[in-house]
Design brief:
mainly beta, eight-stranded parallel β-sheet, seven-stranded parallel β-sheet, 1 helix, globular
Length: about 260
């Protein structure tokens, strides 16, 4: 309860922000034997900045299992306000994160996200969310994002309820910063599969313009950082599957591409 009340930062940076410390953090760096960490039957409440953070970098392979946990609330540190973040950064780096029977909610700032999955610079991240509830949050319920292309993310959402995100309940974005390998950006791919789940009531926040339940696309974050930027939208591939699920109550759209 109440972990990380400082505003100090780690060395891991997602443009344009470095990440702070948090409640529970796992760093795995460099090639070597795979590392597996598990958090079970626990509550991470009011952790500033981040509830749980796991990163595999410089060729590392990591797996994080989060089972039967509550991850709720916590104050923002600068612009970071996230329940669970999993990331893979650098060639051959891989992260797998499995979230089962968890409740994640209550990051209420305008930057709040329940779950953020990242992949960067030729890395791959895989995430599975099962039998979980993701509730009210200041911005996004689940965000998957790639940068420094190429990179790849695969996410499965099964038998879960994701609801009441102020902006978007489930979003994927390909960032156009920093520059990647122009000869290989087309290898970038984000895959999202949703089965037997309920996605509802996204995009009703007071500051939500053109938001809803599920969104996939390319982000113009370079222009958000610098209005004079001429960086084009990033290339890549999205694959989306929806089966036996209910998508309802999105303010501006149910599913947007």
């Amino acid at each position: 309860f109440g972990a990380n009340q400082s505003s100090t930062e780690t060395d891991f940076v997602v443009p344009p922000f470095p990440f702070p410390h948090g409640g529970i953090i796992f760093f795995n760096e460099g090639a070597g034997p795979p590392v597996e960490n598990s958090i079970m039957n626990s509550e991470i409440i009011d952790a500033a900045g981040l509830g749980i953070f796991s990163i595999a970098s410089r060729g590392a392979h990591s797996q994080l299992n989060v089972d039967d946990c509550r991850i709720e609330k916590g104050k923002r540190v600068k612009r970071i306000d996230i329940g669970i973040i999993g990331g893979a950064d650098g060639p051959s780096s891989q992260l797998t994160i499995e979230i089962d029977r968890c409740t994640i909610q209550g990051r209420t700032s305008g930057d709040g996200r329940n779950i953020l999955i990242l992949a960067a610079r030729d890395a791959k991240a895989t995430a599975v969310i099962e039998r979980s509830k993701l509730g009210p949050v200041g911005q996004d319920g689940v965000l998957t994002t790639v940068f420094g292309l190429p990179a790849e993310i695969s996410m499965d959402i099964r038998e879960s309820v994701i609801e009441d995100a102020n902006h978007t309940n489930v979003e994927s974005a390909i960032l156009n910063v920093p520059d990647g390998d122009p000869a290989r950006v087309e290898e970038t791919k984000i895959t999202i599969r949703i089965e037997n789940s309920i996605i509802r009531n996204g995009g009703h926040g007071d500051d939500a313009n053109d938001h809803g339940n599920i969104s996939m696309g390319s982000s113009d974050i370079a222009q958000q950082m610098d209005p004079n930027s001429t960086a084009p939208l990033a290339s890549g591939h999205h694959q989306f599957t929806l089966r036996n699920s209910l998508v309802t109550g999105g303010k501006h759209f149910g599913i947007g591409f």
